[in-house]
Amino acid sequence: MLLSIIVTKQMSEKIKDILESGEDIVFKHIGKLDSESVKDVFYSASRISSEAILVDIDVFSGKEIVSALQSFRISRPNTRVIIIAPERKPGDELISSIVGLGIYDIVAEVKDSDWNGIINNVLLSTPATYSQAARWHTGQFINDGKRNKERVVIEERHSGIIVIAVAGTAHGLGCTHTAFSLASFLSRLGHSVAVIEDSQRPVFSYFTNILRAKEGKVKGSYVAHGIDIFALDESKGRDEWNFDTLFREIKAGQYEYVIRDLGVLDSSRMREIYMADEAFIVASAAKWRWHECIDKFDNEYSIIFPLASKSDVDEFSFYTCIKGTPFPHCPNPFSKDNDSVILKLLDPVLPNRRRKRAFFEKLLG
């Protein structure tokens, strides 16, 4: 089970066995929260898909935790929320408001209980129903009867993992550089990103050494600049794509975006391009290399021209009727220099954010 955990330091000692289970824990926060950080931590948790989240109510005793849980429920309606409420008794206003959110798994034992065993039993059981939580629900709600003006951020997101393929028309044009530029941009936006090597000339192992990358959160990955990097294992045969063999790791990493560095286009890689959610072809805008694009691509693909000027690309488009995007010189793929260009390129697969101001009745239930 993929599990998120938000608990106090004291509770972390009591559920030590669960915390040390390791690989199934996809998000973890240990320690008290203040009124400013409580929403940030729950927002971070909502960015990661998990089957259940354990929340120790003692991380923050103020009413903001109810609002944070409500936002989490909206973002992750299918995640089971289990509230750890040591020593709490029926009639507790805070627990009543939480039950009003449709959260019915309330674990309220004495502090010296065997919390490892209790939580394990809850995780193995079916989710609680309202009839089991009704004793907590007094019908009193925080801010009952008050209207609060809030700024609400609505994000329309693509479901599942977005796969972005990057391939070049020839070696040495900057396919790998482009892949990491895209990944770096997405990482800076706060997205969980992985880059997977599937090119004919593997360089990721060398690349991770140069970057002094550390071991990533998923087996077989390295992390640098907030990006999980999966190098091609040259000791294994090439009967399968690296992307296909890493299915279990991709699932465990809960990535929002996976970028595939496919290397130089050939017939097999063209099939992989077709299957991606978004694809970018890296090409040269030099006139003597236009033939690498003509009769091969049309405006169905986003063609990127590294080191080219706008006038170079405009001339190419005028004579070939194929649109392209100039990618200004930027030696460091992790810099922000080309963010404005990348934003336009990735716009079709980015969350659509709308802000609207509205009045909500704060009847948390």
Automatic annotation (TrEMBL):
InterPro entries xref list: P-loop_NTPase (IPR027417)
Protein name as it appears in the record: Uncharacterized protein
Species, as recorded: Thermoanaerobacterium butyriciformans
